[in-house]
Amino acid sequence: MNTQIVAVLIAEASKVMGQWFRNRPIRIETIGDAQPTTVAIESPENFSEKASGIATGCVVCAIGHLGTCSGLLNEAMRFAREEGAQSKEVVDRVGMCLDELNTMERVDLRPEMTVNLSEWEKELVNEVLTASRATRHSLEALDSVKTLEAVAATTQSVRTHIWREWIKNRTEHLTPEDQANIQKRVITKMAELLESEEDQGAVRK
Question: Cα dist. 116→15, 99, 120, 152 in Å?
């Protein structure tokens, strides 16, 4: 496949991920008389519209959650090496990673969101859910820096694998209509760049 088409496909996927991150739930810690609690503020998103829209958005959202969780665990490891697995910084980041996985499993990958996915996408979803549950169980029973390191490494590997498989399969399963739309976007973008260069050249003259 033309490398320009693949490049635009990756750009489109990144755009979807960016839109998700802007609209994702915001968590605010509130401190009361007892222990701090977390209040989840959901974005005013219509989930039924999301489910009937870009189906692959479910997988892309999952990749976003895995990426965030991986980053949190990597950061937790930085503190764990100096302060141990029971460090407040480690415990807090592990908790945030668990929040990410719970949100992914119970919101983005719930049956309502995945029922209309293609077979290859459902296979990726099943891989993600299996890995997510295993990660949660390991983190909930976290007892050492060595265990944390193993979970952090596995999470990063899963995230990389799912992302590569999504890009590979998404490219291979493009319909003629998808390809035509992507080519149209490439042509439009090239025309915009050409027009911009011409305008800048006119200004310099």
Answer: 22, 26, 12, 32
For residue 191, name the pLDDT band (cuts at 50, 70, 90).
confident
pTM above 0.70, yes or no: no
Query: Which tens digit of pLDDT belongs to each residue from 89-126?
Result: 999 999 999 999 999 999 999 998 898 888 999 999 99
DSSP 56: T
Residue 150's CB is within 10 A of a number of other CB atoms, namely 12
8-state DSSP, 25: P
Read off the tokens for 63.
Answer: 């990749």
Q: Are 38 and 28 within 8 A, CB to CB?
A: yes
Q: What's the number of domains the chain is made of?
A: 1
The verdict on residue 160 lying in a domain is: yes
**How many C-beta atoms surround the C-beta of residue 94 within 10 A?**
22
In a domain, 36, yes or no: no
Asked, for residue 51, whether it belongs to a domain, the answer is no
